[in-house]
Design a protein that fits this description.
280 residues; alpha+beta; Aminopeptidase; seven-stranded mixed β-sheet; 5 helices; 25% helix
Length: 280
Amino acid sequence: MPTQDETTICTSNSAEWCDRVCRAHGVPGTFTPEIWFQPWVGPPYYSNAITLTRSGLTEQYAAIAQLEENLPQGFSVKDAFANLDLTKSGFHVLFDAEWIWFEPSPVAQPESRSSSWFQVKTEHELIRWEAAWAASGSPTASRVFLPALLTDASLAFFGAQRDGQVVAGCIANRSRAGVVGFSNFFAPDSGRDRYRSEAVALVANFAKGNPLVGYDRGAELQGLRALGFRCVDPSRFGCGPQSLVPFIEAPVFEATTSSNCSPPLSNPSVTVIEARCYSA
């Protein structure tokens, strides 16, 4: 593993995943040492910028200013280290969450599975998977996950079927640091803990002994902690003197400058802030 702190590894994994999704839509982002940013209208639920270091604020603010010019209709920013003060631009906190880390050894493969799990391999399977994902609480008028993602060996979409229908799923993404992101988990309320345990076991197998990373909040965070995930570098921070939520426990937040932007992530697991609409 590289000599990076765990939060940096987590946020880099998140940025690489976002870039892959955006790249599949023909709007790849740009990586600098301090920030990943993508100054175009991208797929629903995906940020236009993610900070990559605790330092480099000057470059990070400059990239966000560029986004304001390029995307007057609204954009989103994920502040991975809770270092930015965006309240001067009218942002306020919507919700918070935690980066999480998991060493695979504590999780045992379930002796039996409650449903038939499979790895998505074809476009038809991907369409069925995304329809189930969207129906579970991530509605969108356009597709998010395009077939090009299936050609990337560092990614895996897993789904669970019952009675011929996709009922649960998750995504794994391996990043350059060697860790594997666990994201986009969905499942019915009935048996959700079981599905989550099975999904984590599948992604742990895909990770081949490397750590799993991600972010989450609330009951979903507690469910993952029960499986062995731990919170990484929890922090308490203020979003500025005029913040509507003066203090938040979270090492990451997402921002949007328009109420007409894409809705929050399907698995709302980052601190999100929203600002007034900007006009050209």
